[in-house]
Amino acid sequence: MWESVLKIEKATWSTAYVNSLPDTAFAYIEAGGEKDEEGKTKPRSLRHLPHHNASVKFGSEKESVDLPHLRNAMARLEQTNISDEAKREAKNHLEMHEKQWDVGEAGNADDVEMGCGGKDEKTKKSLWGDLI
Ligand SMILES: [Zn+2]
């Protein structure tokens, strides 16, 4: 009974599930692929760090974020085989979600890095604007 209320889930999406997610569920998508008939990038290996469930819309909203996968994506970021710039971009995106959910590391000393993106800053503002 209570489990359904607490909704504690582990980061265990199957490959098939991840492959079925739209592009917006991922923190970073490498260039060079093409879209299939559903608008999803192929090959699927170009899509990195899934952290939204199948209800994702824009990829910037809080509601569809899967927290275990958000944590997982953060943990795997450094081992992901993408450029440093891509990692920074992905990290900014993931950190935005951490702030939305008020999770992440306490006393985050890396806050300075958030200043680079500009784009994320705007996304965040419009998002909060919608919520308030
Ligand atoms: Zn996202």
What do you see in this structure?
It is a single chain. The chain is mainly alpha-helical and 132 residues long. It has one domain. It is 39% helix and 9% strand. It has five helices and four strands; from the N terminus they run ααββββααα. The chain has a two-stranded antiparallel sheet with strand order 1-4. Strands 2-3 form a two-stranded antiparallel sheet. β2 and β3 form a beta hairpin.
Beta-strand content: 5-15%
Unique bound compounds:
zinc ion
Contiguous helical run count = 5
Helix content: 25-40%
- Structurally, the number of domains stands at 1
Tell me the overall shape. globular
Tell me the number of strands: 4
Mean pLDDT: 82
- Unreliable stretches (pLDDT < 50, length at least 5) are 3-8, 107-132
How is the biggest beta sheet arranged? 2 strands, antiparallel
Task: Describe the structure concisely for a colleague.
The protein has 132 residues and is mostly helical.
Question: What keywords describe this structure?
Answer:
132 residues; mainly alpha; two-stranded antiparallel ribbon; disordered N terminus; single chain
List the helices and strands and how they pair.
Layout: H1 2-6, H2 15-20, E1 26-29, E2 34-35, E3 41-42, E4 47-50, H3 67-76, H4 84-101, H5 119-131
Antiparallel strand pairs: 1-4, 2-3
The structure holds zinc ion.
Zinc ion is lined by residues 51-52, 59, 93, 97.
